[in-house]
Amino acid sequence: MIAFGKRLAAVTLGRGVVFLQGDLGMGKTTLCRGVLQGFGHKGAVKSPTYTLVEPYELAEHQVYHFDLYRLSDPEELEYLGIRDYFDERALCLIEWPDRGAGVLPQPDLEIYLDIEGQGRSIRWLAHTEYGVQLAEELNR
């Protein structure tokens, strides 16, 4: 997951909306840790389960890591000022995006993490023109 996260960081160039799909323990937060390490982050990366969002201001990038697992109503995101996080210069990584349905923007890329044998499988689906570009880069 760390290696794939670093690869994802390289192709996104620090912008876009990425939904992370997978059951508990599939490695969504670990993948986010890899993305942040790919941008040079050296500190801890914890799951923002209780705060809902953890911002990372890096030298050249702004990354927002969302974990919506404990969100009880998508409308709660409006109170967070959710729309302010989604701009052209930020990368938004969103765990449990289904909990924010109707409020979150369409993702550029949706990544699915599943169990496969003793490990994990990773697959992705593009939802925007930019997402298609990301998917093509990831497929190389």
Report the portion of residues in β strands. Answer: 25-35%
How many structural domains in the coordinates? Answer: 1
**Average pLDDT for all residues:** 92
| Overall form | globular
In the CATH hierarchy, what is the architecture at level 2?
Answer: 3-Layer(aba) Sandwich
CATH topology name, in short, is Rossmann fold
Tell me the span between the first and last alpha carbons: 17 Å
**Main β-sheet description:** 6 strands, mixed
Helical run tally? 4
At the first level of CATH, the class is Alpha Beta
| DSSP strand tally | 6
Structural class: alpha/beta
What key attributes describe this structure?
140 residues; alpha/beta; Rossmann fold
Describe the structure.
The protein has 140 residues and is of the alpha/beta class. The chain has a single domain (2-139), classed as Rossmann fold (3-Layer(aba) Sandwich), CATH 3.40.50.300. It contains four helices and six strands, in the order αβαββαβββα. It has helices at 2-12, 28-38, 76-79, 129-139, and strands at 16-21, 53-57, 62-67, 90-95, 109-116, 119-126. It has a six-stranded mixed sheet. Helix 1 (2-12) packs across helix 2 (28-38). It is globular. It starts with a helix and ends with a helix.
